[in-house]
Amino acid sequence: YNLGLCYGQGTGVDHDHTEAVRWCRLAADQGLENAQYNLGMCYGKGTGVEQDDNEAVRWFRLAAKQGLAAAQQLLSQLGL
Question: What is the pTM of this model?
Fold first, then answer.
């Protein structure tokens, strides 16, 4: 997950959103709620992946289910 953040920000590695998503997805698939939330943001904005609101909501829901307040608040703001 941290390596994904580095790629997303270009910290210590070349800035590469696609690579950032790859590392974030690995962590998200293992259940890391912050990675799930960030992956949702990537899908919501189309950063490193094709923009997909349904996929974004799916990842936000997984993060919210684990108690991540930011994901819960975002879903609430979206009326979901």
Answer: 0.93
